[in-house]
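for the writeup, i need someone to sanity check this before i put it in the appendix. the sequnce is what the collaborator sent (i think, or maybe the updated version? ugh). structure was predicted straight from it, no edits. if anything looks off just tell me and ill rerun, i have time this weekend
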Amino acid sequence: VDGAHALDRITRERGIHLDFFTAFSSVAALLEDGGQGNYAAANAYLDGLMARRRSLGLPGLAVNWGPWAEVGMAADLADRMTRSGVAMIPVEQGLAALTALLGAPVAQIGVMPTLRPARPRADAAAPPAAAEPWRTRLAQAPAAERDGLLRQYLEQQLTALLELPSGYRVDGHTAFSELGMDSLMVVEFSNRLQRDLDVVLGSTIAFNHPTVEQLQAHLVRELGLETATGSDPESDTPDEFELDDLRASVDRELDLLLNDDEDTTP
Protein backbone atom coordinates (compact mmCIF):
# COMPACT_ATOMS: atom_id res chain seq x y z
CA VAL A 1 0.00 0.00 0.00
CA ASP A 2 2.76 2.45 0.94
CA GLY A 3 4.78 1.68 -2.18
CA ALA A 4 1.86 2.01 -4.58
CA HIS A 5 0.70 5.21 -2.91
CA ALA A 6 4.19 6.75 -3.13
CA LEU A 7 4.66 5.81 -6.80
CA ASP A 8 1.26 7.19 -7.71
CA ARG A 9 1.83 10.48 -5.86
CA ILE A 10 5.39 11.07 -7.07
CA THR A 11 4.71 10.31 -10.74
CA ARG A 12 1.66 12.57 -10.74
CA GLU A 13 3.30 15.45 -8.86
CA ARG A 14 6.39 15.40 -11.10
CA GLY A 15 4.36 14.98 -14.28
CA ILE A 16 6.17 11.78 -15.25
CA HIS A 17 4.58 10.23 -18.34
CA LEU A 18 3.87 6.54 -17.98
CA ASP A 19 2.76 4.05 -20.60
CA PHE A 20 1.67 1.56 -17.96
CA PHE A 21 1.03 1.53 -14.22
CA THR A 22 0.31 -2.07 -13.23
CA ALA A 23 -0.34 -3.27 -9.70
CA PHE A 24 -0.04 -6.93 -8.77
CA SER A 25 -3.13 -7.36 -6.63
CA SER A 26 -4.53 -10.66 -5.37
CA VAL A 27 -7.65 -12.71 -5.88
CA ALA A 28 -7.91 -12.54 -2.07
CA ALA A 29 -9.49 -9.11 -2.55
CA LEU A 30 -12.31 -10.73 -4.57
CA LEU A 31 -12.96 -14.06 -2.85
CA GLU A 32 -13.66 -14.80 0.79
CA ASP A 33 -10.76 -16.61 2.44
CA GLY A 34 -10.81 -16.88 6.20
CA GLY A 35 -7.84 -15.38 8.03
CA GLN A 36 -6.66 -13.05 5.24
CA GLY A 37 -8.67 -9.93 6.05
CA ASN A 38 -5.61 -7.68 6.30
CA TYR A 39 -4.12 -9.05 3.08
CA ALA A 40 -7.44 -8.71 1.23
CA ALA A 41 -7.84 -5.11 2.41
CA ALA A 42 -4.35 -4.14 1.24
CA ASN A 43 -4.95 -5.60 -2.20
CA ALA A 44 -8.38 -3.97 -2.41
CA TYR A 45 -6.57 -0.66 -1.87
CA LEU A 46 -4.49 -1.37 -4.98
CA ASP A 47 -7.69 -2.08 -6.91
CA GLY A 48 -9.20 1.21 -5.77
CA LEU A 49 -6.02 3.16 -6.51
CA MET A 50 -5.95 1.90 -10.09
CA ALA A 51 -9.63 2.79 -10.52
CA ARG A 52 -8.89 6.31 -9.27
CA ARG A 53 -6.00 6.70 -11.70
CA ARG A 54 -8.21 5.61 -14.58
CA SER A 55 -10.83 8.15 -13.54
CA LEU A 56 -8.13 10.85 -13.80
CA GLY A 57 -7.22 9.76 -17.33
CA LEU A 58 -3.99 8.10 -16.18
CA PRO A 59 -2.83 4.54 -16.93
CA GLY A 60 -3.70 2.08 -14.22
CA LEU A 61 -4.40 -1.66 -14.07
CA ALA A 62 -4.79 -3.93 -11.04
CA VAL A 63 -4.41 -7.65 -11.78
CA ASN A 64 -6.00 -9.83 -9.13
CA TRP A 65 -3.71 -12.82 -9.45
CA GLY A 66 -4.40 -16.30 -8.22
CA PRO A 67 -1.42 -18.20 -6.73
CA TRP A 68 1.64 -18.59 -8.96
CA ALA A 69 3.62 -21.80 -9.11
CA GLU A 70 7.38 -21.79 -8.48
CA VAL A 71 7.63 -18.09 -7.61
CA GLY A 72 5.82 -15.65 -5.35
CA MET A 73 4.26 -15.83 -1.90
CA ALA A 74 2.41 -19.11 -2.51
CA ALA A 75 5.35 -21.06 -3.98
CA ASP A 76 6.33 -22.62 -0.64
CA LEU A 77 2.72 -23.76 -0.14
CA ALA A 78 2.25 -25.14 -3.65
CA ASP A 79 2.04 -28.80 -2.68
CA ARG A 80 -0.43 -28.16 0.12
CA MET A 81 -2.57 -25.88 -2.05
CA THR A 82 -2.62 -28.42 -4.86
CA ARG A 83 -3.78 -31.12 -2.44
CA SER A 84 -6.58 -28.77 -1.38
CA GLY A 85 -7.74 -28.39 -4.99
CA VAL A 86 -6.25 -24.94 -5.60
CA ALA A 87 -4.77 -24.74 -9.10
CA MET A 88 -1.55 -22.77 -9.58
CA ILE A 89 -0.55 -20.41 -12.41
CA PRO A 90 2.55 -21.62 -14.29
CA VAL A 91 5.12 -18.85 -14.67
CA GLU A 92 5.03 -18.93 -18.47
CA GLN A 93 1.25 -18.62 -18.55
CA GLY A 94 1.29 -15.86 -15.97
CA LEU A 95 3.79 -13.79 -17.96
CA ALA A 96 1.81 -14.38 -21.16
CA ALA A 97 -1.38 -13.23 -19.43
CA LEU A 98 0.37 -10.10 -18.13
CA THR A 99 1.66 -9.24 -21.60
CA ALA A 100 -1.82 -9.64 -23.05
CA LEU A 101 -3.36 -7.44 -20.35
CA LEU A 102 -0.95 -4.49 -20.55
CA GLY A 103 -2.84 -1.60 -22.08
CA ALA A 104 -6.24 -3.22 -21.51
CA PRO A 105 -9.01 -0.58 -21.26
CA VAL A 106 -10.01 -1.66 -17.74
CA ALA A 107 -8.87 -0.73 -14.26
CA GLN A 108 -9.06 -4.21 -12.76
CA ILE A 109 -9.16 -7.82 -13.89
CA GLY A 110 -8.76 -11.16 -12.16
CA VAL A 111 -6.55 -13.98 -13.40
CA MET A 112 -6.77 -17.43 -11.86
CA PRO A 113 -6.81 -20.98 -13.21
CA THR A 114 -9.86 -23.20 -13.09
CA LEU A 115 -10.22 -25.02 -9.79
CA ARG A 116 -9.74 -28.77 -9.87
CA PRO A 117 -10.65 -31.60 -7.47
CA ALA A 118 -8.37 -31.91 -4.48
CA ARG A 119 -5.52 -34.38 -4.93
CA PRO A 120 -5.37 -37.02 -2.20
CA ARG A 121 -2.18 -37.04 -0.15
CA ALA A 122 0.21 -39.78 -1.21
CA ASP A 123 1.13 -40.50 2.39
CA ALA A 124 -2.40 -40.45 3.75
CA ALA A 125 -4.02 -43.83 4.31
CA ALA A 126 -7.32 -43.93 2.42
CA PRO A 127 -10.26 -44.94 4.63
CA PRO A 128 -11.90 -48.23 3.72
CA ALA A 129 -14.88 -47.93 1.40
CA ALA A 130 -17.24 -49.29 4.01
CA ALA A 131 -15.87 -47.18 6.86
CA GLU A 132 -18.60 -46.11 9.23
CA PRO A 133 -19.17 -42.32 9.25
CA TRP A 134 -17.77 -40.61 12.31
CA ARG A 135 -21.11 -39.05 13.15
CA THR A 136 -22.70 -42.50 13.22
CA ARG A 137 -19.87 -43.83 15.36
CA LEU A 138 -20.35 -40.99 17.83
CA ALA A 139 -24.11 -41.43 17.97
CA GLN A 140 -23.89 -45.19 18.51
CA ALA A 141 -21.06 -45.10 21.03
CA PRO A 142 -21.90 -45.39 24.75
CA ALA A 143 -22.57 -41.96 26.24
CA ALA A 144 -19.55 -42.17 28.54
CA GLU A 145 -17.22 -42.79 25.59
CA ARG A 146 -18.38 -40.06 23.19
CA ASP A 147 -16.24 -37.25 24.54
CA GLY A 148 -13.12 -39.36 24.27
CA LEU A 149 -14.04 -40.57 20.79
CA LEU A 150 -14.63 -37.03 19.53
CA ARG A 151 -11.35 -35.89 21.10
CA GLN A 152 -9.56 -38.79 19.42
CA TYR A 153 -11.02 -37.82 16.03
CA LEU A 154 -9.99 -34.16 16.37
CA GLU A 155 -6.46 -35.07 17.43
CA GLN A 156 -6.12 -37.47 14.48
CA GLN A 157 -7.24 -34.81 12.01
CA LEU A 158 -4.92 -32.17 13.47
CA THR A 159 -1.94 -34.54 13.50
CA ALA A 160 -2.48 -35.40 9.83
CA LEU A 161 -3.25 -31.84 8.72
CA LEU A 162 -0.35 -30.22 10.56
CA GLU A 163 1.97 -33.14 9.75
CA LEU A 164 2.82 -33.60 13.41
CA PRO A 165 4.87 -36.60 14.57
CA SER A 166 2.96 -39.83 14.98
CA GLY A 167 1.61 -40.11 18.50
CA TYR A 168 1.93 -36.36 19.13
CA ARG A 169 -0.32 -35.35 22.03
CA VAL A 170 -2.20 -32.18 21.16
CA ASP A 171 -2.73 -29.88 24.14
CA GLY A 172 -6.42 -29.10 24.34
CA HIS A 173 -5.74 -25.50 25.38
CA THR A 174 -3.11 -24.66 22.75
CA ALA A 175 -4.31 -22.40 19.94
CA PHE A 176 -4.31 -23.97 16.49
CA SER A 177 -2.24 -21.05 15.19
CA GLU A 178 0.47 -21.90 17.73
CA LEU A 179 0.54 -25.44 16.33
CA GLY A 180 1.26 -24.05 12.86
CA MET A 181 -2.22 -23.86 11.32
CA ASP A 182 -2.46 -21.20 8.60
CA SER A 183 -5.46 -19.85 6.68
CA LEU A 184 -5.29 -22.57 4.01
CA MET A 185 -5.25 -25.25 6.68
CA VAL A 186 -8.24 -23.64 8.38
CA VAL A 187 -10.32 -24.13 5.23
CA GLU A 188 -9.08 -27.71 4.76
CA PHE A 189 -9.76 -28.49 8.43
CA SER A 190 -13.31 -27.17 8.13
CA ASN A 191 -13.90 -29.24 5.00
CA ARG A 192 -12.70 -32.38 6.76
CA LEU A 193 -14.97 -31.79 9.74
CA GLN A 194 -18.01 -31.13 7.56
CA ARG A 195 -17.33 -34.24 5.46
CA ASP A 196 -16.62 -36.65 8.30
CA LEU A 197 -19.23 -35.40 10.77
CA ASP A 198 -21.93 -34.56 8.22
CA VAL A 199 -22.48 -31.11 9.73
CA VAL A 200 -22.52 -27.63 8.22
CA LEU A 201 -19.73 -25.44 9.63
CA GLY A 202 -18.36 -22.07 8.59
CA SER A 203 -14.98 -21.91 6.90
CA THR A 204 -13.68 -19.94 9.91
CA ILE A 205 -14.63 -22.59 12.47
CA ALA A 206 -11.00 -22.94 13.62
CA PHE A 207 -10.76 -19.17 14.16
CA ASN A 208 -14.02 -18.97 16.09
CA HIS A 209 -13.12 -21.99 18.27
CA PRO A 210 -9.30 -21.95 18.19
CA THR A 211 -8.44 -24.83 20.56
CA VAL A 212 -9.38 -28.50 20.77
CA GLU A 213 -11.31 -27.88 23.99
CA GLN A 214 -13.37 -25.04 22.51
CA LEU A 215 -13.94 -26.78 19.19
CA GLN A 216 -14.98 -30.01 20.89
CA ALA A 217 -17.51 -28.15 23.04
CA HIS A 218 -18.94 -26.47 19.93
CA LEU A 219 -19.19 -29.75 18.03
CA VAL A 220 -20.93 -31.40 20.97
CA ARG A 221 -23.68 -28.80 20.62
CA GLU A 222 -23.77 -28.96 16.82
CA LEU A 223 -24.06 -32.75 16.82
CA GLY A 224 -26.69 -32.78 19.56
CA LEU A 225 -24.56 -34.75 22.02
CA GLU A 226 -25.03 -32.50 25.07
CA THR A 227 -27.49 -34.72 26.91
CA ALA A 228 -25.27 -37.73 26.55
CA THR A 229 -21.90 -36.15 27.22
CA GLY A 230 -22.81 -34.07 30.23
CA SER A 231 -22.95 -30.33 30.75
CA ASP A 232 -21.64 -27.89 28.19
CA PRO A 233 -18.04 -27.11 29.22
CA GLU A 234 -18.21 -23.65 27.71
CA SER A 235 -21.42 -22.57 29.34
CA ASP A 236 -22.35 -22.07 32.98
CA THR A 237 -25.53 -20.17 32.18
CA PRO A 238 -28.07 -20.52 35.02
CA ASP A 239 -31.50 -21.90 34.21
CA GLU A 240 -34.61 -19.72 34.10
CA PHE A 241 -35.56 -20.47 37.70
CA GLU A 242 -32.15 -19.29 38.93
CA LEU A 243 -32.46 -16.14 36.84
CA ASP A 244 -35.90 -15.42 38.37
CA ASP A 245 -34.48 -15.79 41.87
CA LEU A 246 -31.58 -13.51 40.96
CA ARG A 247 -33.92 -10.83 39.58
CA ALA A 248 -36.09 -11.00 42.70
CA SER A 249 -33.03 -10.64 44.93
CA VAL A 250 -31.83 -7.62 42.96
CA ASP A 251 -35.29 -6.02 43.19
CA ARG A 252 -35.31 -6.46 46.96
CA GLU A 253 -31.87 -4.90 47.30
CA LEU A 254 -32.95 -1.93 45.16
CA ASP A 255 -36.06 -1.40 47.29
CA LEU A 256 -33.94 -1.36 50.46
CA LEU A 257 -31.51 1.13 48.95
CA LEU A 258 -34.30 3.41 47.74
CA ASN A 259 -36.06 3.31 51.12
CA ASP A 260 -32.81 4.11 52.91
CA ASP A 261 -32.23 7.08 50.62
CA GLU A 262 -35.66 8.52 51.47
CA ASP A 263 -34.70 8.72 55.17
CA THR A 264 -31.20 10.03 54.66
CA THR A 265 -30.29 13.68 54.06
CA PRO A 266 -27.81 13.93 51.15
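Confidence is low (pLDDT under 50) at residues 118-130, 228-241. Strands lie at 22-26, 61-65, 108-111.
thx in advance!!
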